[in-house]
Amino acid sequence: MEYAILYLELNLFSLILIWIILHKTRGLSKMVAQRNFVMSIISEMVFFISDTWSQMVLNHVIPGDGRILVACKTVYFFATSSMCFFWFLYFELIRDTSFAKDMRRVRQSAILMWLMGILLLGNLFGKYLFYFGDDGTYHRGPLFILTYVLSYSYIALAWIRIILNIIRKDTKQDKKVLIRLLLFPVAPGVAGIIQFIYPRLPVACVAMSLATLMLYLIWVDELISLDPLTGLNNRKQLNLSFEQLKRGKGEQEKIYLLLVDANHFKHINDTYGHLQGDNALKLIAKALREGCKHSGRRAIIARYGGDEFVVLASSEGDATNEELKNNINARLSELVEEEKLPFDLTISIGIADLDDDDSLKDLIEKADAAMYDEKKKGS
What we know:
Layout: H1 2-25, H2 32-58, H3 66-94, H4 98-101, H5 103-109, H6 111-126, E1 130-132, E2 138-140, H7 145-167, H8 175-183, H9 186-197, H10 204-225, H11 235-247, E3 254-262, H12 265-272, H13 274-294, E4 300-305, E5 308-315, H14 318-339, E6 347-353, H15 360-378
Antiparallel strand pairs: 1-2, 3-5, 3-6, 4-5
Helix pairs in contact: 1-2, 1-10, 2-3, 2-10, 3-6, 3-7, 6-7, 7-8, 9-10, 12-13, 13-14
């Protein structure tokens, strides 16, 4: 009885924790990535409830027979598989991978989850995964290992893909965030191995709930630091990044700032509406990301406000500055052509180099003056 009470307390703690996380996520974001995060939490709650229920029946805390136990375990294993699947999709979506954009591949990736469902249905008759004896004793079947392999393959695959993402030199992701994501499966994975070897140790639910809390905190951190429309850094994050970049500046390194402004943006909003205006800002943000990526240098990109954007980068000479500027303009022209916009969309870019005593405000003012000169040339 003491074991059952301990199991109940730990699982209730875990269930309440992730219910709070689920409640806090409501209304914060409608991004596809966050919908998958919510689905993983719901699967996790089903996992906790079915696990707790079966243990309470096994320890005679609540009434139940073999059919209840089989039903609980069946739901438990399918919830594990669906939880891991939605975690996998969440990791792909927040990293904005090409896989996540291909719906055919996303649907195909669900095959392991549906295979688990088919095996669990067959197990009701074949007892090859698990079964309960006449005395209520839980037994593992000859194919029990598949309940772990089919589920945790998603986590292993996500882990491998994040590692590859980290070691790629041209990755556009923040490597600190990627490393934090890489740490996520460690606790649930270790707990899963422990509970596989020692089934009576109630560690899986606690480890999963704490890992989910970590994911939630990463998400909240992203919401605080990102502009919701473009997904770029916001002004607060720009200030933090500038201070970090300035402190870490090497002796021969030159830091520069590009101030980017959409030309005739008020005309676009007034003539074509705010939805088209928002679309224009998103295209500019995309051009900045991809233009900076092709430059081969890591850049900090932020929406400064309205139709103004900032790019912070480093180089060893002015030629790189002009090259980056040309890359951004060229990519924007390509995107405008691809989108077949009903209006012209161009930008003006002012560039300023950082002097040792410059603040971010000083640097932006210098870039603003350079941008104003460019606008006059283009008008």
